[in-house]
Design goal:
Strand order of the largest sheet: 1-8-7-10-3
Helix content: under 10%
Radius of gyration: 20 Å
Distance between the termini: 12 Å
Number of helices: 1
Number of domains: 1
Structural class: mainly beta
Length: 206
Amino acid sequence: MHKTVGMRRAGSVAAAVMVLALAGCGGDGGGAGGVFGGGDVGKTIISGNAASQSAVDVNPDVFRQDVPCPAIEVEDGGYIVMKSQRGKDDDPRALQYQANLEKWARKCRREGGEVKMTLGVSGRVTPGPAWEGGEIFLPIRATFVSLEDDADTKRGPKPTVLTVPVTLGAGAPAEQWALVEQNLVVPQGGSVKLEIALDDGRNRRQ
C-alpha cells in the first residue's frame, strides 16, 4: 500500500500542527516517540445559550478514555537514508541527499469496529554535493509486528509505505519534513508494536 502525503514547509498549517503534536515526544517507553497531546476532559468547555439555541449537541467521544495504542519503534538502520548517484555509493562527492528521521508520535481511536492509529513523523533532508535541486519523494515504511513471541518472523499485515514529497534546492540548507497519517488500522487479536523506518528501497522487510 502506497500513499502520498504532502507537507513541505514548516510554515504550513499541517507542519505547524506536527510541531505542536511532536513537541511533547520523549516518553514512549524509552524511545524518542510519544503520544499526541490530547485534551483533558476537565479543560474542555462546552457552552450554549438556551435563549438562542434549542439544543446543544455533545459528542460522547470527548469523554471516552483514550484507546490503548501500540508502542512505536524504529527499525535497525531506519533512522537515516543516504542517496548517492548510481554506482557511486562509496564516493562522498556523489552524495545527492541525506534524510533523517527525528521525531514520531501516535494516538489511537475506535472507529467502525476497528482501532485506527494516527501516526506523526518528522525529520529533515540535507542536500549533498551532487544534488542539483528538485523534488524528493521520501518513503516512510510502517509495519505492525506481533509481540506474541520473540521471533521476528511473526509479522502483521503487509507494510504500509507513505511517501512525503520534499522540495530541496541545490546547496540549500536542510529542509524539514513532516507526515501525518490518520488511518493505520491496528491488527487485533494479540499484542503488536509499530515499526517505522526511512525506506531506501534496498532492504525492505516483508
